[in-house]
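Homework help board

Subject: predicted structure for assignment chain

Our instructor gave us this sequence and asked us to write out the predicted structure in token form, then describe one feature. I got the tokens but I'm not sure how to describe them. Can anyone check?
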Amino acid sequence: MAAGMEVSKQELKEGIEGRAVNIDGAAVAPIELETQTRAVGVIIPPPDIRAIVDKTATFVARNGPEFEKRILGSEKNNAKFNFLLPTDPYHAYYQSKIAAFAEEAAGGDAAA
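My token output:
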């Protein structure tokens, strides 16, 4: 290292713990990145899972969120029902199906 560019162990520790330090040892502003944390689109599940999702969404739209809670309790160890969890990639598809089936049911009742 060139003279005057040495970084003490204390400065290095402070740089790691609280501030960013560039390779020359000078303090630099930390970089803040904006990340996307919300789903952009809906991932459509494969046909075998889609059949389960659609059938479950039909029952939940008809019987309400209590029915979903019962399924979550009884099928918590069944990977085929992971779409019930908000962290699952197919959860957005499931939610959209519940909304579609509920709207369809409401529209059907209005026409009767």
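Reply (TA_rk): Your tokens look well-formed. For the description, you could write something like this. Helices lie at 9-17, 47-63, 65-74, 91-111. That's the kind of observation they're looking for.
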